[in-house]
Protein: Caffeine dehydrogenase subunit alpha
Amino acid sequence: MSTRSFGARIRRNIDPKLLRGEGSFVDDIPLPSPLHAAFVRSPFARARIRSVDAAAARAHPGVAAVYTCDEIGALDIELPQLIPHPSMTDPRTQRPLARGDVFHVGQPVAMVVAVDRYTAEDAAALVDVDYDPLPVEVDLERAVMDGAPLVHATHPNNVAAHFRQVSGDPARAMAQAEHVTRIRVQVDRSTAAPMECRAVAAMFDAVTGELTVWDGTQAPISVRGALASILGLDEDKVRVVAPDVGGGFGQKVYQFYPDELLVPMAARALGRPVKYIEDRRENFIGSSQERTQIHEIELHARRTGEVIALRDLFLHDTGAFIPYGIAIPQVASTSIAGAYRIPNIEVEFRCVYTPTVPVTPYRGCGRPQATFAIERALDQLAEELGLDRFEVRRRNLVADHEFPLLRSGLLFADGLPVSLDSGQYHRALALLAERLGAAGFAEEQELARGQGRYLGLGLAFYVEGTGLGPYEGGHVRVHPITGKVYVNTGLTSQGQGHDTVFAQIVADQLGVAVEDVIVVEGDTKAFDWGVATFASRAAVVSGNAIHQSAALVRAKAIAAAANMLEVDAEAIDLREGAAWVRGTNRHVSLAAVATATNPLRYAFNEAAKAATQFAPASRHDGPALRPGEHPGLEATDYYSPPCATWAYGVHGGLFEVDPVTCAVKVLRYVCVHDCGTMINPTIVEGQVLGGIAQGFGGALYERIEFDEDGNPINANFVDFLIPYATEVPPVEILHLETPSPLNPLGVKGVGEAGCIPVGAVVASGIEDALRPLGGAPFRHVPITPSMIHAAVAGT
Amino acid sequence: MSTRSFGARIRRNIDPKLLRGEGSFVDDIPLPSPLHAAFVRSPFARARIRSVDAAAARAHPGVAAVYTCDEIGALDIELPQLIPHPSMTDPRTQRPLARGDVFHVGQPVAMVVAVDRYTAEDAAALVDVDYDPLPVEVDLERAVMDGAPLVHATHPNNVAAHFRQVSGDPARAMAQAEHVTRIRVQVDRSTAAPMECRAVAAMFDAVTGELTVWDGTQAPISVRGALASILGLDEDKVRVVAPDVGGGFGQKVYQFYPDELLVPMAARALGRPVKYIEDRRENFIGSSQERTQIHEIELHARRTGEVIALRDLFLHDTGAFIPYGIAIPQVASTSIAGAYRIPNIEVEFRCVYTPTVPVTPYRGCGRPQATFAIERALDQLAEELGLDRFEVRRRNLVADHEFPLLRSGLLFADGLPVSLDSGQYHRALALLAERLGAAGFAEEQELARGQGRYLGLGLAFYVEGTGLGPYEGGHVRVHPITGKVYVNTGLTSQGQGHDTVFAQIVADQLGVAVEDVIVVEGDTKAFDWGVATFASRAAVVSGNAIHQSAALVRAKAIAAAANMLEVDAEAIDLREGAAWVRGTNRHVSLAAVATATNPLRYAFNEAAKAATQFAPASRHDGPALRPGEHPGLEATDYYSPPCATWAYGVHGGLFEVDPVTCAVKVLRYVCVHDCGTMINPTIVEGQVLGGIAQGFGGALYERIEFDEDGNPINANFVDFLIPYATEVPPVEILHLETPSPLNPLGVKGVGEAGCIPVGAVVASGIEDALRPLGGAPFRHVPITPSMIHAAVAGT
Structure:
């Protein structure tokens, strides 16, 4: 190929459309005379429902239907527990509409469908629900104490799951330790806050029996499966389309929100399209959240700083339900040893029900908490042993020759043992130190202190198991006439730029321009099989599936072109949208090759065959297609990773903290990042930067707050602070590219990376800045001005 | 399998829906605010257009657009010639809207799109077209004479194509003949007259760029290809759906009617759905027709009646255009020797342009004409040699041991030499003679004559090359949860019962009930590749493709079930919707097998795997899917026939003709029919009966009439007579089943069979009845009372 698209800084195909406001989100789908849904939601964190009286709402002009749990037939169930695990007993999941009890403020109790949203909300206010409030405990540590009010009577001490994993022989190693560092760290609850809230619209065709659903989901194929299964439809009769989606970050892969099932049900029952567009408050009280964990971590070390054992005991807040099982704490517990060799590990957690919005993975999924724990502990170990923070890491980082490093006994979220597959951890740390000027920083810091300025350097390393299975597929098809290449896969984009990176993969294989490759995702009629977008897996799993499919199409194109041009396959070169006889000007367009691989007109008439310019691609005696031969220039293949592939990185920052105003200023922020081979550095940087922005949210601003009764008290963008452009510092990004040995493209996931270490970096930096002032260390994020004030005041 | 569906008289799945009026035809598709199209059509058979003034129409209230050839951009072309052949020079095809000239009454000149059909027709009447009429000749024999007015100035003597084929050494054989029979026969023009006229509706989504078209077509995939190509869209952006369609008979596979292209174009241009529902008059003057051929046939025989050479020279009326090339006369010319061994054949034809509705294949496609020619000639030969009509056939019919009988030199419509593959011709003839009581008929006839009643026996043998390639595909998928089996193929049904016969094929393979197999056809989003429904090919080509796909799914199901039940594959039996360990009660439902073949939840978590009731179907170490393994219980395969497979049959009837009223009464009608292995005898009989009904139309009633100026004079159901139930006699059907050696199922096509010999049988019978009265023989169908009167009066 003349120029390689893979690895190039190609601009995103989708941006012009989105920037011109021509995106088509769920609310933009034109529907004939749609009805609109609104929900009646619980105002109590925990209550028994004495009665629901919907008569007034039903009588309200313009109301088509009011559904309570009594009117939803097969949907009146506890929704499926998605990831079973024996550490859970009788896991509790949500019912589409509450029956008997409510478990968090915002839980849907009834759905009103009316001619417009205004009417639907008015009518929702007329639904009279008589609640009997019950006592609650929202504090994680108090919730597990004896006597705490229970979220579910079935679960003593509110413990939803209890799990312990061990790698190596931690007891023996701990006995040999010369130094032990113990700290308690806490990460608070945040939310994904996607720019577009969730949305679902549905239309049912009574004649064909086909249900079409537009859903701003990360998992259209799963939604189709659930709808078909619960509504008693065959999957072929259900089409789920995820159109343009304005950010997901995990929140949109909940599987299954009540509205995702109830809106299609209503569309079918009422014979009219129905839509529901979540508003921002509903996103805060009804869509899933994540983060709260409290870790008690111990590092058992030699005096040299070499950590020989790690013990971690933590609590994980799972909210009112546990639909995702132990996915988040399992990721946290298997990431707890970070990038360090630490051969002996014991990690144990309890998942705790609290009467709050359910918790499911949010970008990072347990890794920010694990990274915060191990990195804060390493800083503490360094301090206790009088070591430099870089040095203590150098002494523990996995060396290049140690890959793959297996942590036998620690099963990752894919059910397979943790195995760090490749990396250049030492080089990454050295690059960071160099770029950040770490060597000279102490002097700079000293100088500043003399001027009454408090500067600090923070750093944190992290690893990220990415590209989880089980599989994704890819379909690649070259169109006749136009020569355009269409690519389909089962997962879908919420703005990540799949349409560009997948196009790059295919463009190289087929020798076409990236803009001639059209990626169609998120439509169950376009691709039937797949899982979802989560776990930084799209590039790894769909990317490799598409790569393999494109390679099959390439082989087919070369064989067909060789036949048409009457040369050997080895003589064919694919470039510039055509197949060329190498070293000559003889060529045939890929469009013509695609046309010829459909043996359509040729077979009608022998004379017609002779009349065509080229021999048909599959010319041979006998049938137009040989047994097993398929028409068309297309192929479908699947990629199923053997296990997770581990990306990593190290971030560092220089901070200035004002002990009077308690303001934190980020002077510099450097990210050294390695996600294996990069398909498109620009998109990698976009992902990393976006992640870092969200990381700053979690480090300094974002905390979902509940009062003692479990009422959310900052469920809006005035009180819940997300970083704007003004709060996100410029970031210097340095790339390393250590290919993954686990997949043909050598890629690793990058979707979540950016956010993982930021809390640890910021805490490390603030602590470093304020060290001369003494006070408490920073082991709790987000770090608010009040917390800084308290720390400084404590001196 | 306990009971076999294949071969059983299963009721048609689709009938309850259709009988309850719940079918969904194009006009039933609910569209948001559709616009309606009407056409301005030429009132002249041949004219030059001086000017078109659409101003008044455009100004008419409610009109959205008026299109002439100047406003249709890329569509202002001569549409593709579908089947090229060197016997044609510069073949003429239709333009979507006339430019410069019109070539038949009814040709579209402009399209009006308005808020409703009423308004559109009013506005169409306001389009002022100034025509300069030109002279015409509609008589086929006069049209080829020097000096006849030309339809296309490019074609002297109106000859569109001229082709001659030779098998054996006819010149040498003719020199050896002891007797020559020469007759001229004529078959007149008819029309398919489907119960539902043609219809097309289209909707364009400007945001996604997707065009959806509902088209009552026999060839949705071809329509998609044409639309994509001509409108400059990629095929993935065009979805063509053929919903329920009320009969096609070839007329709906024209490819491409102007409205099929113009309506989608307008929907795209106007941003609103547009529909066009053809009315009956438009069907007569705008949709294709077929039949007129005039044959001069010679049989060169020995005195024994053995025909050693055949020469046939014929004219074929192709109407104003020749979109299908020489398909019809080529089928006629290669079927001309019928079921007879005749080793030396010379056949030559000219396709003749006439200023009439274009001619494309109509059920039978040239075979009724060829059968009429050879069978009438054999009757004449018998008469001339004083032989019994059965006996002269016996002496020439291909014997069982002679199969396959190759007619080298005669290329059939698939471009391959004619090769009669299998049959029991002699047995069929004997069965007919026996059932009809042929042995005793002469006595009966004599007796009747004594009573002044004129009875006649008619018979005709025919062969039919069926199941043409190039290919069709099948996709078979077992659904998780429900266990229902979905089957997709690229061609589509117009009422033939595909949904039942394809389901029978699959039901046996997978051991499920026929009603649990759902066949979805005619939707380019459901299956991407295929050709169309024509040439009695669906059961042969799609049937075998689906059979092969089902066999792949069967193998996959057995392997997966064996894994789940922990036995060898050989021990598994599929029946009653489940996989059973043979000889035991241990089983697992096919739904569960389908669920297990999607390695979805298993891979999330090792513990979850252990928790499932059965081992996952694809359990093994490493990735969830092995390289090349695909998820789900599904498969796609294609079938591509090596050449046509030849069905055959012989019909006979007893007739009574009243020489005074000229009424023809059918006393008995017997059909001996062999379409290879039968999938469903009830459906075979439905096809045969329907064909015979249409055959009686062509034999006694249906003739499209033009006046000298080329004006259709019976373009309605009052003047153009189609047989009602009262005109179709009871038919006795006897089946033979000689499997086709060419495909796994052993099937041959049956869609057209019934209509092929009826004209010859009726003519033979009337001639036999009236023989004592002398007069002209019957060599021209349809046979009207006037023709009988003339024949009788001639004595």
Q: What stands out?
A: Chain B touches chain A through 77 residues (CB under 8 Å).
